[in-house]
Amino acid sequence: MHPFIKHCLFAFVVVLLASCTSAPQSAKPRIALVMKSLANEFFKTMQDGATAHQQTHAAEYELIANGIKDELDVARQVEIVEQMIAQQVNAIVIAPADSKALVAVCQRAQAAGIVVINIDNKLDAAVLAERNLRIPFVGPDNRKGARLAGEALAKQLKAGDQVAILEGVPTAFNAQQRKAGFEDAMKVAGMNIVSSQSASWETAKANQIAAALLVEKPELKAILCANDSMALGTVAAIKAAGKAGQIRVIGFDNIQAVRQLLKDGQVLATVDQHGDKLAVYGIEYALEVLKTKTVPADKETAVDLVTKEVLATN
Question: From CA 135, how far away is CA 299, in angstroms rounded?
Fold first, then answer.
C-alpha cells in the first residue's frame, strides 16, 4: 500500500474513533433555569425546588441554575441567556426580570433550536405578537392572588380608610397584575388609595418609602406590598415609627422570613404561589416539548391566601 494512502486511512480511523468516544449515544438534555435575584428568598426557594427535582430525576436531565444579583439587572439576565445559547443547552426555563426586554434574547434562543419556557413573570403579550413568537407561560394569576390578599385586608378596614400600595418593578407583568389585583379589592371595598409607587421589589427601598408615607399620611391604615421582601421593609418602618399594630400590612410570596410576622400579627396576609414548584413545572414542560416536539399551551398554577389562621392549621 502506498505510504500516503496508508497515512490517510490511519488518520480517518483516528478521527472516527475520536468521534465515537467523544459523543455519547444518548446524552441527557441540559436545561438552564434562569431566575431573578437569588438575594430574594423566593427565587432561592425556586432554585432549591428545581435542584431537588433534578436530583430525583438525575437520569432524565441535567440542570444549570443561574440567577442575577439585582432584580433590576436586566442586562445581566440577557447576558446569562446569551451564555446558555452559546453553551447549546436544550431548553431554557426563564423567570424574566423585565417582561419586554427579555423577549428578543428568548427569540434568539428559539432560533438556535432551544426550547424556551416562561415561568413566574409573563413575557409581554404585545411584544410576543409583534415578533410572531410563541413562548408558553407556566405560572400563577397574579391579579387573582393579589385580589385575595386585598379582600382579606378589606375585612379588617372600613370604607373610606386610607391605604397605600408598594409596587414591584413597573415593567414586570406580575408587578402590574399584583397592583391591579390590589386595586380591584380596594375599589370594591370603597378604600381610599392615597399612594401607589414602586419599591422595585426591594426591602431597603420599601423601608424608605414606607417611612416617608407614615409621616406624609398620618391617617394611613394599611400598606399593600407586591412581594414579601417589600413587606419586611414596611414592617421595619412601622416599628421604627412606633406604630406597630396600627398599620396593617399584606405581602405576596409566602417566604419563610414573613411567616413569623404572620404568626405575630405584624403581617395580615400573604399569597403562596408555590415558588418551590414553579421552576419544576417549567422544567417538566420543557422535557415534554423536547420529547413530543409540540408546544404546550399556557398553564395556570395555584395561588393560595396565607394568614395566621391558615398557618395554625398546617
Answer: 12
Distance CA 305, CA 182 (A): 13
pLDDT per position as a tens digit, 18-44: 333 333 434 899 999 999 988 899 999
- CATH architecture of the region 142-272: 3-Layer(aba) Sandwich (3.40)
pTM: 0.86
Q: Which residues partner with 92 through β-bridges?
A: 32, 116
Q: Could you tell me the three cell numbers for 213? A: 408615607
138: Cβ–Cβ under 8 A, 6 or more apart, which residues?
Answer: 117, 118, 119, 278, 281, 282, 285, 298, 299, 301
Q: Where in the chain is the domain with CATH 3.40.50.2300?
A: 30-138+276-300, 142-272
Which residues, in sequence order, are CB contacts of 117 under 8 Å at separation 6+? Answer: 91, 92, 93, 94, 135, 136, 138, 282, 283, 285, 286, 289
Given a cut of 90, whether residue 236 has pLDDT beyond it is yes
CA atoms of 232 and 252, how far apart (whole Å):
11
CATH of domain 30-138+276-300: 3.40.50.2300
